[in-house]
Amino acid sequence: MGAAPRSRILLLTTKLGYQTRAFVEAAQKLDLEIVFASDRCERLDDPWRDHALPLKFHKPELAAAKLVEYARANQVEAIVAIGDRPTPTAARACAALGFLAHPVEAAELCRDKHASRQRLREAGLLMPRFQLFHVEHLHSDLFNSPEFTIGFPCVLKPRALSGSRGVIRADSPEEAQRAFERIRALLQDPDVRQLREETSGYIQVEEYIPGTEVALEAVMDRGRLHPLALFDKPEPLEGPFFEETIYVTPSRLAPARQTEIVRTLEKCVAALGLKHGPVHAEFRLNERGVWPLEIAARPIGGLCARALRFKLPLVEEEMSLEEVIIRLAMGMDTKRVIREKQAAGVMMIPIPKGGWFEGTEGLEAACAVEGIDSIEITAQPAQKLVPLPEGGSYLGFIFARGESPELVERALREAHAKLQFRIATALPVLQSQPAR
Prior knowledge:
Blueprint (H helix, E strand, L loop, with lengths): L7 E6 L6 H10 L3 E7 L13 E3 L4 H15 L1 E6 L5 H11 L6 H7 L2 H10 L7 E5 L19 E5 L9 E3 L2 H15 L2 H4 L8 E6 L4 E10 L2 E10 L12 E4 L5 H18 L4 E10 L2 E8 L13 E2 L9 H9 L8 E2 L3 E7 L5 E7 L1 H5 L4 E6 L6 E2 L10 E7 L2 H13 L2 E5 L12
Parallel strand pairs: 1-2, 1-4, 2-3
Antiparallel strand pairs: 5-8, 6-7, 6-8, 9-10, 9-12, 11-16, 12-13, 14-15, 16-20, 17-19, 17-21, 18-20
Helix pairs in contact: 2-3, 3-4
């Protein structure tokens, strides 16, 4: 008798996802056969040689129908979305196939800053005041006029983009005017327009909420929230831009405050309708309580998940966050998964200035810092670097582990201080050699 066929899963990803390799490694560890489905032109003949199904994530109904057809013909057992854009497509396909996943409405709500704010406010959660404006709505006196009701300071952000991209604080009408124009220009950039998001024509203006920030990584397992890791963000995020850099876990907050954060997330997922799958949540904390900033139906982005390691009771081998998410999609038990006891952290290395990346110095010295686990420079030679608020990437990631969060944070800062990045202000022109 031949060997039984391996279980097959679909990984939905964009062309540039940092996390794809980690998910592939996790699937291989579980002895799963992987099929990619990617946002690309279907007329090209497998340009990346990964045999991926070509999809259009800006048309989730059509993309999901294609996935369903493939899954039924090829005995696919689970679908996992990597990043924000594939989540509505994955939710639709899973619903049609009867797979465990977040509902379609919940996945779409989490991708829309305006709709999610409305739903959470209706549920009684702490919400900043907010207004939505079309990108063409701007006029010379908008932020001095009665139609603008938020006041100052405020935060302007694109309705569609994720993370801190395009998020700008304004402390006056003049600053708000400039921020609006800057975000509008970003939304008209070809790299953004090619995403064809329906929400890309809008800018949301919100009341600025002072305080510290945390991130909570969790999963929903058949309707029950299972927190995995609470990250402190020790860097002040006060603007004018909101570049996230250091995440450290476990949190140093008082236990009562940590419980309040988890209880707030429970209310958020109930209001949004999240049922089964990963959850990444961002909160701002102050004397008034816990303010939800973002509730995403996806795991933490970039390579940040490498800072997390998990175990099952009585099982010696560790597992990654990606493995936890795949197990969840396959219907395996994740309720007993716990994070390792050691403190851990990650620094997303910020881009100090725009230009073209030439290289890194001091890497050996940075890696030698006590507590540093690894450093990965993801920027490629001659890559154009764009800092926030227009940019959407980092130079790389620094990972650290230690006996306490304080030691981890110190290691990350010390290692970063030893790195120097060469960034050219102009792309060098290669001189052609004369023919001999």
